[in-house]
Amino acid sequence: MALRVVAAEDSYLIREGLAALLHADPELDLVARVPTLPELQRAVADHRPDVVVTDVRMPPGLRDEGIRAAEELAAGHPSTGVVVLSQYVEPDWALRLFTPGAAGRAYLLKERIGDLDTLRRAIGAVAAGGTVLDPQVVEALVAARSGRAASPLAGLTGREREVLELVAEGLSNGAVADRLRLGDRAVEKHITNVFGKLGLESGDDAVHRRVRAVLVYLSATSG
């Protein structure tokens, strides 16, 4: 069965372009497209979609409505996946989106709307309870890091911080092991220690905890 999708975007042109892309995929069923948070809330109540694709800023406040919608869905409709689209890199929003226990979330830059394959993969991933973080968000934040003194990373050892930095650059455990000339088990142990020191719940999905750890790192080291 096709995934039922609600799209929320206040710009008419972007909303209609997004609708056209979603309509072009036979595996997606766009059941509603709306321009505001209150209309998104009504559409979710009426249609019970599998996935919501939403702009991060919408009327009435044009602030963080997309994140608020994701938080409300986590409480009231936890099985509904959410893809949040943002014009800019916003680490604080990303951290709110990927709160512990909030599965089925994606954070993409809005320019991804034109890439149907990327958008489709994100929709499919969150519908299945997965997590997606735009690689350009990671790249931009890593490039902008300035090493703040007051940091949640202060409790990490030098080696743990090295491991986390490489994870934030997108390296797999095996690639981290090769770069640092460590064994796979040593890298796994360091990552487990990082999760614990950053307060990431052991009950969360491993991929979700990895994304949260990266977000904490990027938030703490970006200017």
List keywords for this structure.
Arc Repressor Mutant, subunit A, 2 domains, alpha/beta, 6 strands, 10 helices, Rossmann fold, 223 residues
What is the fold's blueprint, element by element?
Elements: E1 3-8, H1 12-23, E2 28-34, H2 37-47, E3 51-55, H3 65-76, E4 81-86, H4 91-97, E5 105-109, H5 116-127, E6 131-133, H6 135-143, H7 158-168, H8 173-180, H9 184-197, H10 206-221
Parallel strand pairs: 1-2, 1-3, 3-4, 4-5, 5-6
Helix pairs in contact: 4-10, 7-9, 7-10, 8-9
Give structural notes.
The structure is a single chain. With 223 residues, the protein is of the alpha/beta class. It has two domains: 132 residues, 3-Layer(aba) Sandwich (Rossmann fold), CATH 3.40.50; 78 residues, Winged helix-like DNA-binding domain superfamily/Winged helix DNA-binding domain (Arc Repressor Mutant, subunit A). Helices cover 50% and strands 14% of the residues. The protein is built from ten helices and six strands. It has a six-stranded parallel β-sheet with strand order 2-1-3-4-5-6, with helices on both faces. Helix 3 links the parallel strand 3 and strand 4. Helix 4 runs antiparallel to helix 10 and helix 7 packs across helix 10. The longest helix is centred in the C-terminal third of the chain and has 16 residues. The mean pLDDT is 86. InterPro entries: CheY-like_superfamily, NreC/VraR/RcsB-like_REC, Sig_transdc_resp-reg_C-effctor, Sig_transdc_resp-reg_receiver, Tscrpt_reg_LuxR_C, WalR-like. It comes from Pseudonocardia autotrophica (Amycolata autotrophica). Pfam families: GerE, Response_reg. This is Transcriptional regulatory protein DevR (DosR). Keywords: DNA-binding, Phosphoprotein, Transcription, Transcription regulation.
